[in-house]
Amino acid sequence: MNTLVNLEQVQKRFALPGGHQYHALDPIDLKIGTGEFVALIGHSGCGKSTLLNLVAGLLLPTEGIVLVDGDRVSTPGPERMVVFQHYSLLPWLTARQNIALAVNAVLTGLGREEREATVEEYIRLVGLQHAADKRPAEISGGMKQRVAIARALALHPKLLLLDEPFGALDALTRGNLQEQLMRICQEHRVTTLMVTHDVDEAVLLADRVVMLTNGPRSRIGSVLEIAIPRPRRRMEVINHPSYYSYRSEIIYFLSQQKRIKELRARSRAAVGRHGLEKVNLEIGFVPLTACAPLAVAKERGFFARHGLEEVNLVRETSWRGVRDGIAGGWLDAAQMPAGMPLWMSLGGGDAEPTPVVSALTLTRNGNAVTLHQRFLDAGVHNLRDLRGWITENSDHPPVFGVVHPSSMHNLLLRYWLAAGGIDPDRDVRLQTIPPAQLVANLRSGTIDGFCVGEPWNLRAAMEGAGYIVATDRDIWMGHPGKVLGVREPWSRNYPNTHVALVKALLDACRWCEDADNHEALRELLSRREYLSMDPSYIDLGGEGAVADVATGTTQKPRLDPVDAARYQCAHHRFFLAAGNRPSRTEHLWLMTQLARWGDVPFPRNWVEVLERMCRVDVFSTAARELGLDISYQRGAIDLFDGVSFQWDDPVGYLNGLAIKHDVYMAEVSLTRRDQAGPGVERAWSDVAAAA
Amino acid sequence: MSATAATVAALTGRPRLGPKIDLPGILSTLLPGIVGVVGFLLLWQLLSSTGVLRLPGPWDVWMDERSRYLILHPFYYVSDLDQGLFWQTLASLKRVAMGYTAAAIVGIALGILVGSNPFMNRALDPLFQFLRMVAPLAWVPIALAALQRNEPAALFVIFMTAIWPILINTAEGVRQIPADYINVSRVLNLSRVQFFFRVLLPSALPYIFTGLRIGIGLAWLAIIAAEIVMSGVPGIGFFIWDAYQQNYVSEIIVAVIYIGAVGLILDRLLGLTQRRLVKI
Fold first, then answer.
1. Sheet containing A220-225: order of strands
2. Which of A140, A232, A341, A472 has the largest count of CB atoms under 10 Å?
C-alpha cells in the first residue's frame, strides 16, 4: 500500500494574547495509505480537529511538514475535501446548488452537461433526489450531512477529511449514514481521515484508530489496527470476536487519559513523617477477593499503625491500569498479578522495561478455570474431555478470557492446556478482558471460558453462566496469586516506607487469614469502593468447606456447579508467614512461563534479574520486626502433570517443554535511567512529557 | 395542507368551498389595528374639543376648507411652491432617492472593505463611530457653507444620515460570515469574484438589509428636517414650515399624515425586497 498522507514531526502552536503560546500538538508522525480509513479519536481539546485541519491545509504546521501524495500541503484544496461537523452548506442555496457550486468551481475541465450529470449522480448516490431542490433549512440534519458528503465526493478528492461528521445526529440517522459512508468509501476506494469521539463509530468504520493524548502537547498515544474484514455491517461487526476487545482498548485509552488529567491536578509532593520518607501513598488495586489485604490494611488501620497515615487506594478496573499507573509513576505501589513485576522489568507488551520489585506475596490460590454452561451439557468435565471437544470441533476453537498476559491466570491456564496437549496459541484463542467483564462476556457467548480469581468463578456458577472445570488444586496448589509491586527506584528512594508498607500488609494478611474475621471481611469487600457486589458472591472458604472433597483431576465428584465452585475451589490463602516471602523459585518459574509464550525474552542474566526483583531483604526486615518466623527451605515446585520445576536449570526446563512459542534469549539490561534524584518527581516529569 | 383541510371537512361534515377566505382570521388580525386607530382619533377629538390641546381635532381638519382641499386635491399644481401634497412629497422623495442611493452604494462598498480588512477596520472605525454621532441637522450649516446651494446640501445631509447604519451593519455582516463558509470556499479554492458573489454577499445580505431599513427611515426623517431649515425648496418639509409660518395648523396635520404614511410605505417596500432577496 503506498502512502498517500505523510505527517512528519508535525507540531502546532497557537499564539495566545499576551505573547503566550498554546502548544497544541507535539511532534506527530502519521502515515495514511491509499484507500485506508483512519479514525482520530481523543477527548475534547486534544487537537484532533487541529490535526485534521493541518492535513486539509486550513492550518499550517508550526514545525514539520504535511505531505499529501508527495506534495507539501500549504493551502486548502479540493483534492483534500473536508466534511465539517456542522455541514457547512450555504443556506441560501438548495441542496443541488450547493453541490453544483463545488462541482462548477472545481471540475472546470468538464463541460457544462458533464458537470450537471456529476451533480445528479452524487445526489442519487446519497439518495436525495426528493430533496435536491430544498434549502438546508428545510431538510433534516442527516440529509444536510448527506448533501455535504455528496458535495465532497462529487469532487473526486484524493483524500476525504471528516470532522466529527455524525456528531450532531440522532443515533438512528447516524447508523444509517455510517453504513452509507462505508459503502461509498469502499466502492470509490476513497482514502479517509475522520475525527470522531464515538468509539463504536471508530471501530465500525476505521482500518486504523489513532488515539491522541490529552492536550496541551497532544501526541499519538496509541494506534489500533481494526482487523475486521470488509464489507462490514453494523449488526455483524458487533458480533465479531474482536469487536469488544477493540472497543475496550479505545475506552481504556480514553478513560486513562481522563485519569491522568485528574491525577496531574493532584499535589504529588512526598510527605515524610515518623522517620518514613513518604506517608502519602497511592496504592493501586483491582477489585477482586484478592485485594482483601489492601482493603483491610486501609479500613482496619494497619497502614496508619505502621505510620502510613495518608494511604489512598486507587481502584483500577484492569491490570493494565495498574501497569500504566506504576510505569507512569502516579501509583506508588500496587497489588499485581504474580508475573507482572518480571513482565514489566523485562519489557513485556513491547513496552520500555520498567524495573519493578516485589517484597511480598499477598495471596496464594483463589483461581479457577470456568467454562460456559454448554460445555457441561456436552460432557466436558476435565482437561481430557476438553481436548476431545476441541478435536471434534476444530473449526470452532474456544475463546478463553484472561485478565492480563502476566497474570497467574493466563500462565496457569496456558500451562494446564499445554499439559493436556492443547496449544494455547493455536488450538484455542486467548483474549485479554478485565476481570469484571468476564462473566458478562461468558454469558453473552463472546468467550467460552476464562481463568480468573474469585469472586468471578463463583459468580458465574451462581448466575448459571458457567461451571468450574479446574481449580488450583488441579494445577498448582498453593501457587502465588497477587504480589506487592513497586518501582525499583521508588524502593531505593523510600526504603523505610517500603518496609513499613510490607509490615502493614503482612499484618493485614494475618487478619484476613483468621476465619473469625471472615464475616467482617466479606462485608468489607462487598462495599462499593471494593468489589461492590452482594456478599453472597464472596466466599472465603473457612472451616470444613474443602476438607471432604476428593482431589485429583480424574475422579472429581460431580457436584452441582455452585457447590463445586464453593467447595472445590482452593480458597485464597493470605497469610503463610514464610509463604508470604517473595520466592525466587516461583518467580523463576513465572519467568520461564513468560518466555515460553513469547511475552518476554528469557534473560541470560536471569540470576541477576531475580535477585533484583525479589526483595527478600525488605520482606525479612519487615517480618523480623513483626516477630514472625519465616524460616523456609528452598524446594522444587511440583505441578499437576508430574513435572517438577527445579531452581537450577531453567533453560533446560524450557527446552524440555513440548508446546511452546519460539523462546528467545537475551541479555536484559535493567535500565537505571531514573536512578538519580527523587523518583516520584522524576517519574512525574516523565508522565507530563508523555501525556 | 389540502389533505388536512379535507380531513377537517370530512370530520366536521361541512362541504368544502372553493378558494377559502378565512374571514374570521383576517378580522382578528385587522380588528385590533382598526380599534387602535379609531380610538386614537376619538381621544384626539375629545382632547381638542375640550380645549386641553390647542390643536384642531380630526373632524376640524376635515371641515377646514384649506386642509380639505389639500386632502381631496393632491395633484393640483400652481407653482413650484404651491402644489398638491403628492407633488410636494414626490419632490422630497426624489431627493431621498438620490441621497439614499448614494449612501447605499458607498455604505455597502465601504462596509465590505472595512468588514473584510482588519487593518482598514482599525483605521476607519473610530472615524465612522465619531461621524455617526453627529446629528443630521448639524450637517445642514456645514453643507450649506461647503456647497453653497440648497439642493446639493440637502442631498448631502441625507447621504450623511443614511450611510452610517448601512456601513456599520454591512461591515458587521461581513465580519459575521461563519468560519465554516469561509473554510468551504477555501477548500473549494473559490476565486475572489466567486467568493464575493456566492458566499460573502448572500451571507452578509441580512445585515445589509437591516442597515438599509434603518437608513431609509433616518433619511426620510432627515429630509423633512433639512427642508424645514433650508427654506425655498419645494418639498413636504418646506410645505410644513410654510404652513406653520401662516398658522395653517390643519394643513400641517395633513402633511404629517403624508410623512408618516410615506415612511411606513418605504420601510415596507424594503422589507418586501428583503424577503424576496434574502434566503437565509
1. A80-83, A159-163, A191-196, A37-41, A208-212, A220-225
2. A341
Q: Which chain A positions have a beta carbon within 8 Å of B186's beta carbon?
A: 58, 75-76
Q: Is A382 exposed, middle or buried (0-12, 13-18, 19+ CB in 10 A)?
A: middle
**Cα–Cα distance between B5 and B10 in angstroms, integer?**
8
- Across the interface, do A91 and B184 touch by the CB < 8 Å criterion? no
Range ranked top by mean pLDDT from A292-301, B53-62, B97-106, B236-245: B97-106
Q: How far, in Å, CA of A35 to CA of B193, rounded?
A: 35
Closest approach of A203 to chain B, Cα-based (Å): 28
- C-alpha closest to that of B99 among B222, B253, B269, B225: B222
Find the closest chain A residue to B184 by CA distance: A88
Peptide bond into A455 cis (omega under 30): yes
Q: Residue range A559-582: average pLDDT?
A: 70
Q: Cβ of A90 and B184 within 8 Å?
A: yes
- Residue contact A90–B187, C-beta within 8 A: no
In the numeric block, which cell numbers belong to residue A297? 490494611
Contacts of B114 (CB under 8 A, 6+ apart): B120, B121, B124, B125, B128, B167, B171, B174
Hey, are the CB atoms on A92 and B278 less than 8 Å from each other?
A: yes
Partners of residue A102 in chain B, C-beta under 8 Å: 188
Put residue B55 in one of left, alpha, beta given phi > 0 → left and psi -120 to 50 → alpha: beta
Q: Could you give the 3-state DSSP secondary structure of residue A390?
A: helix
Residue A177 has pLDDT above 50, yes or no: yes
Banded model confidence at residue B167, pLDDT cuts 50, 70, 90:
very high
Distance CA A313, CA A285 (A): 7
Task: Out of B181, B187, B202, name the one closest to residue A78 (CB).
Answer: B187
Report CB contact under 8 Å: A105, B194: yes
Residue A543 pLDDT grade (very low, low, confident, very high; cuts 50, 70, 90)? very low
Contacts of B199 in chain A (CB under 8 A): 90
Q: Quick one: closest CA in B to A87, which residue?
A: B180
Query: Is the Cβ pair B280, A77 closer than 8 Å?
Result: no
- pLDDT value, residue A683: 37
* Cα separation of the two ends of chain A: 31
- For residue A464, report the phi and psi dihedrals to the nearest 5 degrees: 70, 15
Does residue B65 register a pLDDT over 90?
Answer: no
Within an 8 Å CB–CB cutoff, is residue B194 touching chain A?
yes
Cell numbers linked to A655: 527446552
Q: Do B187 and A56 touch (CB under 8 A)?
A: yes
Smallest CA–CA distance from A98 into chain B, residue: B198
A510-523: string of b/e by CB count within 10 Å (b at 16+)?
bbbbeeebbeebbe
Question: DSSP code of A484?
Answer: E
Tell me how close the Cα of B177 comes to any Cα of chain A, in angstroms. 11
> Looking at chain B from residue 150 to 179, which residues have their Cβ under 8 Å from any Cβ of chain A?
178
CA B75, CA A212: separation in Å to the nearest integer?
78
**Alpha helix locations (H) across A130-198?**
141-154, 171-188
Number of CB atoms found within 10 A of residue A549's CB: 16
Phi-psi region of A329 (alpha: psi -120 to 50; beta: other; left: phi over 0): left
Q: Assess A134–B contact: CB distance below 8 Å, yes or no.
A: no
Using an 8 Å Cβ cutoff, are A336 and A455 in contact? Answer: no
pLDDT at B4: 44
d(C-alpha B152, C-alpha B232), whole Å: 14
Determine, for residues B183 and A92 on separate chains, whether the beta-carbon distance falls below 8 Å.
Answer: no
Q: Could you tell me which chain B residue has the CA closest to the CA of A56?
A: B187
Q: Residue A291: which of A512, A49, A594, A510 has the closest Cα? A: A512
